[in-house]
Amino acid sequence: MSFSPIISFENITKKFPVRKGFKVQYVHAVRDVSLDVFPGEIISIVGESGCGKTTLLRLLSRIYVEDEGKIVYGSEIVPKKFKRKEELEFRRKVQMIFQDPFSSLNPVKKVHQILGRPLELQKLNNIDERIYEALEEVELTPPKNFINKYPHELSGGERQRVVIARAIITKPSVILADEPTSMLDVSIRAGIMKLMLKIRDDFNTTYLHVTHDLAAARYISDRVAVMYAGMLLEECTADDIVLEPLHPYTQLLRKAAPDPDRLVSEKLGYTGEVPNLITPPKGCPFEPRCKYAMKKCKNFVPPYFRVNKRKVKCFLYEKNN
Ligand code: SF4
Question: 286: Cβ below 6 Å to ligand 1?
Fold first, then answer.
């Protein structure tokens, strides 16, 4: 793995306005997030719904634009507004897999048209050959059995394979995968994750993968970043998050995850709700729920502390530094 990141989020902040009568308030969706992603790496961003993880992906894909900070791809800052040529080039290199294969495919287009469209936009040649290659790569074989089908003629798993084929057809360096298995039957999730791993191995593709499923994150990722209330609270390896979670919120996520070896559910030991992101806590975002909270946690956002090779945003680890 290269030591220069392919993507860097640097102190990214994103707020969304919400109107209440004449008053405009702001939802603080992403707050001062920094994260490096290395070529060929699969990094999962895990957290509860509404924690800001999908917003982070959408910022990189330029569905949204950050208010503060910058996103670097390779050695270039990703512009907030693309010129047409820049946009085409960026979209060729950075592709997205959406959560819902049912709504992310045009129902009135056949697979051949769906896969051919990005190639036409990029003005690439050998369209049929590339479509066949992509279908073979996602194991929809023989391709001739699939190219003339409409999305409604495919199963959920086949549809998600078409979505993945569309994402890889321009040979991107980076794939942004937004909960790619959460809408699929449990029985076909493992097949899709194995396919994502195979694509990484075949093309050295980098994945930024968003999920709320710790088991999926552990299965597919090299590293995991835990997000809560718009902030990244812990970065560690995929095994660490399950075997030795450090941040109190990561410990809560671990305890709340279903575990077939643990038939009696553990007491979570935490109460309270995710904070309101219109008025987020001034200090540590987890302070209102944290059983270890100290006086300073209420007033100060903890910096990252290093614990071996891990990064933890919690004052409990201050003594390690
Ligand atoms: Fe708990 Fe304080 Fe650590 Fe936040 S910084 S998780 S409140 S101990």
Answer: yes
